[in-house]
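ok so dumb question maybe but i'm new to this and my supervisor (M.) told me to 'just get the structure for WD domain-containing protein' and walked off. so i did the thing. is this what she meant?? sequence i used:
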Amino acid sequence: MSFPDRPVAHLLGSNGPVHAVSYSASPGTYILTGSADRNIRLYNPASHNQPQRYGSAINSSKTPGTTKPAVPEARLIQTYTAHGYEVLDLSVSSDNERFASVGGDRAAFLWDVATAKTIRRFGGNAHGHTARVNCVSFAGDGDSLVISGGFDTSVRVWDAKSNSAKPIQVLDEAKDAITALAVRDAEVIAGSVDGRVRSYDVRMGRCVTDVIGASVTSLKLTRDGKAMLVGSLDSKIRLMDRESGTCLKTYADDGWRNEELRVQAVLGSKEKYVIAGDELTAGTGPSGLNGDGKIWAWDLLTGKLVATVRVPCPEGFEPKKRMLGKDGKEKERSNVISCMAWRADGWGDQFCVGGTSGIATVFGSL
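this is what came out, is it supposed to look like this??
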């Protein structure tokens, strides 16, 4: 099976960069996006709006003069509004009835999907985070816990079934901001800007620390929980053995950069591929692909780069902001692909990416 590089839907509507994308629980029919415009949107990528609001074709990069059919616009099902600041992360419950969101509000929001209302807000008081919250995940039996990680260096565990305003546990060993979370059974795994990944066994009260070195921005567990995929700000993605702490494989390329921004990496196609977005940096690398609105895919086992996929923008939606590079010269800011999710936790047949253009794009099959 080749890498699924065909765009099948655009998710439009955001008035700012898309910071988070998340599929509903299996079979992953719906997609949630969290945006800098403070809104969360629910889409059905298989249901399309008609007529389309943009150009009828996107030029093919393979044969000059030929065209591909326009990428359809996914139907917007619902918009969730309660955040006062940007939305940075999302997590969907296993029964698809609730989801959690975090961002600049210094609190974790628990939502009812059907009513579009918030059920609870964790934090925003003397017992909550003291700065923006970067990541969130459900945990526990029946998703009874909400785990949040923040810029204040702490991981906080909240009881979703209790009315208490206090977290039931605070994990504060990190020396810098918490940027990524993963949960498996009684374990909470947290990545930090201090260059460490800490694995907490909350039942045994034990913490194991893996030293990555560079600031950690992305964290995903393999399905068996024996390894973890760690992205960091040294332009490398590492597959780490959780038992021994050794690096099993490193994924990188001369043309790929991740030195300044949070760029997520995920496992996909039944853990056949490692995929990540791209970050705009000053200058152009040897391949000329830096910050070009691209997805990069490596073979999990060999570490070889197998695909780079351009993320198309609908006509009229191209990024127009400009920035100054390190050389002081003005450079065009392309679409930085910073967030992504693979359907059915990497076992499905499609994935979704989002970035600074404010457009999320679905690739694969509908």
